[in-house]
């Protein structure tokens, strides 16, 4: 009898539980997905990500460029101030020609005269460029105890690591080396911010083959390929809010541990930070930082062989075109690479007042085709890449058409 009674009680309990479940399912007015979401909130296995901090794409674009002069009058080729100013003004041309949206340009410098020189040359275009390019001067700054880093690699090269402290009221922006050229609308580069998840603070491209060997620091990227620091999307707010003393705290830690292993200075530090903590980084497509070693062999006695099969090492550039070309290793000089040099010369010589960009881009294509057609059997520069002329002008041609439509509306 006792056993029968116990069984009846168990059946009763099960009936009550089923009744409660039926009421929950059929009397709760919410959708099944909402109820599942409620259950997930109470799951011990689920970790809620922090809300994604959205950057509205319609906001003004912020760009950071570093322009410093060695006060002792010395310096290597990359520090020659005349070259830096020419590259900066040419970069600003490439931004201006491909967008009609306002862009705030922060020139980070250690001498106000450098900013004034750039400003004068931009005004010399006589195109009302200030309606698009809003130039602002920012004095370079290093946090306490890190001032000695100013001379690492090149003067002020490491300053890019501290932009979040120099501009405490700016939410986000794009850092660009002076030796890059936009072949695409910078708005398209800015749009990658919307693809960040809730943890990511920066975006860089893994295109640097100097991490192929002889490096004792971690790096982010495929085996033997690390990040290049010439193009960086920075969520400055998140960088300031990182645990461990903000992004500066991470820089301090890496420098303390690896200060004898940083020949590329800021670039090595960034590789180490994201090598240790890759979840903080969004990987930018290689077409947005097309460096010299994406299309020609690196001297093997440097860091090892970089070409692996196809001579074009950026498949996305083959498919969609090059969006940004980076003249690192002085490759905008025709003595280093004729193809890169022709692209830079095209933008340098472009007549901002009377030029016809659509026609001039056609001329650029013809120049590059001629260069490729006349290459020698032993050519080892980027002209040896099949279809390189199309890769260079594809995004230019597309954005010229888009800009013409925008201006006509």
Structure description:
The chain is an alpha/beta fold and 409 residues long. The protein has a seven-stranded mixed sheet, sandwiched between helices. Strands 5-9 form a two-stranded antiparallel ribbon. The protein has 14 helices and nine strands. Residues 16-55 have low confidence and may be disordered. It starts with a helix and ends with a helix. It is globular.
Q: Could you tell me how far the N terminus lies from the C terminus, measured between alpha carbons in angstroms?
A: 89 Å
Alpha-beta classification: alpha/beta
Number of helices: 14
Shape: globular
Mean pLDDT: 82
User: Can you tell me the residue ranges where pLDDT is under 50 for at least 5 consecutive residues?
Assistant: 16-55
- The secondary-structure element order is HHEHEHEHEEHEEHHHEHHEHHH
**What is the CA-atom radius of gyration, in angstroms?**
27 Å
Question: What is the number of E strands?
Answer: 9
Largest sheet, described in full? 7 strands, mixed
Portion of residues in helices? 40-55%
Which strand order do you get reading across the main beta sheet? 3-2-1-4-7-6-8
Q: Could you tell me the strand content as a percent range? A: 5-15%
């Amino acid at each position: 009898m006792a056993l029968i009674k116990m069984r009846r009680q168990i059946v009763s309990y099960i009936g009550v539980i089923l009744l409660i479940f039926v009421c929950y399912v059929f009397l709760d007015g919410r959708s099944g997905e909402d109820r599942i979401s409620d259950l997930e909130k109470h799951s011990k296995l689920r970790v809620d990500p922090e809300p994604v901090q959205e950057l509205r794409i319609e906001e003004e674009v912020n760009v950071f460029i570093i322009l410093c002069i060695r006060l002792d009058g010395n310096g290597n080729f990359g520090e020659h101030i005349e070259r830096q100013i020419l590259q900066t003004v040419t970069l600003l041309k490439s931004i201006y020609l491909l967008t009609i949206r306002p862009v705030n340009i922060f020139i980070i410098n250690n001498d106000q005269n450098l900013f004034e020189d750039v400003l004068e040359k931009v005004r010399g275009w006589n195109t009302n460029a200030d309606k698009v390019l809003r130039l602002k001067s920012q004095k370079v700054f290093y946090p306490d105890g890190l001032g000695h880093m100013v001379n690492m690699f090149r003067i002020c090269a490491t300053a890019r690591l501290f932009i979040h402290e120099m501009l405490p009221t700016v939410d986000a922006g794009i850092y660009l080396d002076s030796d890059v050229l936009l072949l695409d609308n910078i708005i398209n580069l800015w749009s990658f911010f919307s693809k960040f998840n809730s943890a990511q603070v920066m975006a860089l491209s893994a295109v640097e083959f100097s991490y192929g060997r002889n490096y004792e620091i971690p790096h982010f990227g495929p085996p033997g390929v690390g990040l290049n620091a010439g193009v960086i999307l920075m969520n400055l707010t998140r960088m300031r809010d990182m645990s461990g003393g903000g992004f500066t705290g991470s820089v301090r830690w890496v420098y303390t541990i690896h200060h004898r292993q940083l020949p590329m200075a800021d670039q090595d530090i960034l590789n180490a930070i994201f090598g240790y903590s890759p979840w903080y980084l969004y990987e930018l497509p290689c077409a947005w930082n097309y460096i010299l070693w994406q299309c020609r062999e690196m001297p093997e006695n440097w860091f090892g062989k970089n070409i692996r099969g196809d001579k074009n090492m950026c498949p996305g550039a083959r498919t969609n075109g090059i969006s940004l070309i980076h003249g690192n290793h002085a490759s905008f000089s025709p003595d280093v690479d004729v193809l890169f040099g022709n692209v830079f010369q095209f933008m340098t010589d472009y007549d901002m007042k009377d030029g016809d960009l659509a026609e001039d881009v056609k001329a650029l294509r013809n120049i590059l085709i001629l260069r490729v057609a006349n290459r020698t059997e032993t050519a080892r520069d980027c002209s040896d890449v099949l279809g390189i002329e199309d890769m260079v002008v594809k995004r230019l041609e597309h954005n010229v058409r888009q800009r013409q439509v925008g201006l006509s509306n």
